Amino acid sequence: MSYPGYPPSGYPAFPGYPPTGQESAYPPAGQYSYPAVPGGYPPAGAGAYPAAPPSTGYPGAAGYPAPGGYPAPGGYPAVPQPGAMPAYPGAPTGPGFGVPPAAPGFGGFPQPPAQSYAGGGPAQIPVGYGGGQTPSPMPGPPAAAVQCTQGTIQAAPNFDAGRDAEILRKAMKGFGTDEQAIIDVVANRSNDQRQKIKAAFKTMYGKDLIKDLKSELSGNVEELILALFMPRTYYDAWSLRHAMKGAGTQERVLIEILCTRTNQEIREIVNCYKSEFGRDLEHDIRSDTSGHFERLLISMCQGNRDENQTVDYQKAQEDAQRLYQAGEGKLGTDESCFNMVLASRSFPQLKATVEAYSKIANRDLLSSIDREFSGNVERGLKAILQCALNRPAFFAERLYYSMKGAGTDDSTLIRIVVTRSEIDLVQIKQMFAQMYQKTLATMISSDTSGDYRRLLLAIVRQ
Questions:
Q1: 177/439 Cα distance (integer angstroms)
Q2: What is the rounded CA–CA span in Å between residue 181 and residue 197?
Q3: Long-range contacts of the stretch 58-62 (C-beta < 8 A, 24+)
Q4: Under DSSP, is residue 3 helix (H, G, I), strand (E, B) or coil?
Q5: In 278-312, which ranges are continuous DSSP H helix?
Q6: Would you call 168 helix, strand, or coil by DSSP?
Q7: Per-residue pLDDT tens for 156-201?
Q8: pLDDT attached to residue 247
Q9: How far apart, in Å, are the Cα atoms of 307 and each of 264, 434, 438?
Q10: Are strands 115-116 and 122-123 parallel, antiparallel or unpaired?
Q11: By percentage, how much of the chain surpasses pLDDT 70?
């Protein structure tokens, strides 16, 4: 199967991520508690992490530097409920955006399954394309307590693909381009609807919409619009390919995608990577990475993580003890033990393991990983745990560091805004403002300009 208009070489190369020391800012170990997510699983014991000695925080050289904009002590923020806004100056007001209806598959790639947040049941993802007696496992929360996620983009009502194709044609016909007309269409249609617009455009005018858009646009706004028109699975596969293509490897792109997607999404990405680029994803990973980082990514691309939402607290206790004995409790580190637990346990189960670990080690697990590992494998293991604790906060942090400091990592900004726009961008926006005391829109406005800024703000609904 092919995606006309998306040649592997037809898009700008990914710029590098921010230099080491600028990509993350998690709180020092033991400074903040991790409160239970509303509607989530009860903590395994006390709710806060025991204080760690001052010398065991996150070293700036290889880990997360001390933050400059985290909220006052009270904890790594809980995942916000749909429509709920945190109390802070400049917070966006008004109700959140609802979850758009599920859309049919695109081009043979089926709809991915629900993506789960730690402590809650599955939330629907509209992707638009494509010692002692062992206790019984604890049941999941009732349906009313299941956390929902929300995208800022939902399927437009009374959708007419032909009418939208005509609008886009008029916007690009003749001298000049009506960029605002293009923005009004693409920022207000789901990915599935954009695929229908592409098909209608070719039927009506015998021309390829993507080629026309590329001829009329340039720079970051071109990359953003083309990303919006890519089916989501293809966009993830394309992003992975370009992260490993040519000299150098953008390891953080590999971490961001492979450590955060559901099993079905990863399997579809692997299949798409093979069909569209004629390459084996696992082979490319082995060629471009090495050591424990390579093994972690290979584990991730199997798409075999346990996705059972029931938490077994006895297993969490056993895993926590196993991790302690593999790291803090011995000289040296048994890296394979960390790989096994973090690559195979469900995210709710990992959250319970984090709670249990803090009582055994008198240190939180993120801090222990920071002490036992370094480089990309450290970042990958932390990403998995951060997603288990609070997935929107993980992406909010990535967005923040794509714009912080001199220059902007536009490809990261575009990739996260586009891929989360129909999943949980509402929650990401809320977490962003809570963590950094400024709204995502404010930071986008100060770091971008022109049609690129207008389209980004239209997507984030600001």
A1: 31
A2: 14
A3: 58/26, 58/28, 58/29, 58/367, 58/370, 59/370, 60/21, 61/20, 61/21, 62/20, 62/370, 62/374, 62/375, 62/378
A4: coil
A5: 281-288, 291-300
A6: helix
A7: 999 999 999 999 999 998 778 899 999 999 999 999 999 999 999 9
A8: 81
A9: 11, 29, 34
A10: antiparallel
A11: 68
In three-state secondary structure terms, 115 is strand
Instruction: Report yes or no: 172 and 213 within 8 Å, Cβ to Cβ.
Output: yes
Amino acid at 383: A
Burial 369-394 (b: 16+ CB within 10 A, else e): bbbbbeebbbbbbbbbbbbbbbbbbb
Using CA atoms, how far residue 299 sits from 128, 186, 249, 303, 305, in Å, is: 27, 36, 19, 8, 9
Enter the tokens of residue 58: 């996150």
CA distance 294 to 180: 44
Name the DSSP class of 178.
Answer: -
For the chain, report the end-to-end CA distance as a whole number of angstroms: 37
Gap between the Cα atoms of 21 and 99, Å rounded: 36
- The Cα 152–Cα 97 span in angstroms is 6
pLDDT digits (tens, 9 = 90+) for 223-238: 999 999 999 999 999 9
Whole-angstrom distance, CA of residue 367 vs CA of residue 349: 19
Q: Give the whole-angstrom CA distance, residue 429 versus residue 435.
A: 10
- Report which residue type is found at 22: Q
Torsion angle, CA of 121/343/357/64, rounded to 10 degrees? Answer: -100
* Regions of the chain short of the pLDDT cut 70: 1-148, 462
The answer to whether residues 292 and 275 touch, using CB atoms and an 8 Å cutoff, is no
Please tell me what DSSP assigns to residue 125.
-
Global confidence as pTM: 0.71
What pLDDT score does 195 carry? 97
Task: Give 394-443 as a DSSP string.
Answer: HHHHHHHHHHSSSS--HHHHHHHHHHHTTTTHHHHHHHHHHHHSS-HHHH
- Looking at every residue in the chain, the average pLDDT score rounds to 77
